[in-house]
Amino acid sequence: MASTVWGLSMPAIALALLIIVAGGVVRGFGGFGGSMVWVAGLVVLLPPTAVIPTVFILEVVSSAAMLPQVWRQVHWQSLRWLFAGTLIGMPVGMWLLTQLSGDLVRILLGLSIVAAAVAMAVVPDRASLPGPGSTTATGVVSGLLNGGFALGGPPVILMYFSASSHVVAGRASLVVFFLGIDAFGVAGSAAGGLLTTPVLAQTALFIPLCLAGAAAGKWMFARTTADRVRQRVLWLLGVLGIAVLVQVALR
C-alpha cells in the first residue's frame, strides 16, 4: 500500500480526488460527515497514519470556511460540555491510533458508524438536547473516536440530529465543534510526527477540492427541510459504516 497519494497509480489518484469532493459535499450539507467519507474511502488506498492527519486539516479548513455563515445559530451551552468531555477522551484515542493495527482500526471505525446509525434509527425524535452530564459523556466518546480514527462525529451527530427542532442549531454547533477538536487533532498529529512533508503535500492537493464540494453541499442544505436532513444523515451513517466493514472483509 502506498504511504501517501503520491505513490498511487493515476486511476487511484482520481478515485482519491473524487472521495475528497464527495466528502466536501457531505460536510457542507450537514456541517459534519466529511471525515466519515474521507476516512472510509481513503483508508482503502492509504494507511490510517497518512489519512487521519490529512483529514484533521481538511476538517479545520472546512469548518473555518463555514464559520461566518453559522456563527449566530450555534448552541453554545451544549458545546461547552462537549469540549470538556472531548479533552478527556481525545488523548487516549490518539494513543490508541499508534498501538492498534490498521485493520483493527478499520473494524472499530465501521462498527462505531453503524452503531450511531442504529441508535439514530431507534431513538425517538427528542424535543430538546440532553443535559450537562450526558453531553459531557458524549464528548468523551467523541474524543476517543476522533483521536483514534479522526471520526468524532457519530456520537455528537446522534445527539444533535435526534432532535429535529434543533437541526439548524445542531449543524452550526457541529461546525464549531469540529473546528475545535480537529485543530487539537492537527496539533497532536504534529507532535506525534505524523505531519510529514508528503502528507502535507497531499493535503494541499485536496484542500481546493474539499472547499468546492463544501460549497455545493451548503447550496443543497439551504433547499432541504429538517426532517429530510435527519433522514439523510441516518442513511449516510449506515452506508458508510457498512462500506468500511465490507472493505475489511474483502482485504
UniProtKB/TrEMBL annotation:
Entry keyword annotation includes Magnesium: no
Residues annotated as transmembrane: 6-26, 38-58, 78-97, 104-123, 143-162, 174-194, 200-221, 233-250
Top-rank taxon, per record: Bacteria
Membrane topology of the entry: Multi-pass membrane protein
Cross-referenced InterPro entries: TM_pro_TauE-like, TSUP
UniProt keyword Transmembrane, yes or no: yes
Subcellular localization, as worded in the UniProt entry: Cell membrane
Location, primary (coarse class): membrane
Keyword entries, A-Z: Cell membrane, Membrane, Transmembrane, Transmembrane helix, Transport
Gene Ontology, cellular component aspect: plasma membrane
Pfam family, one: TauE
Protein family (similarity comment): Belongs to the 4-toluene sulfonate uptake permease (TSUP) (TC 2.A.102) family.
Protein name: Probable membrane transporter protein
Organism: Rhodococcus jostii
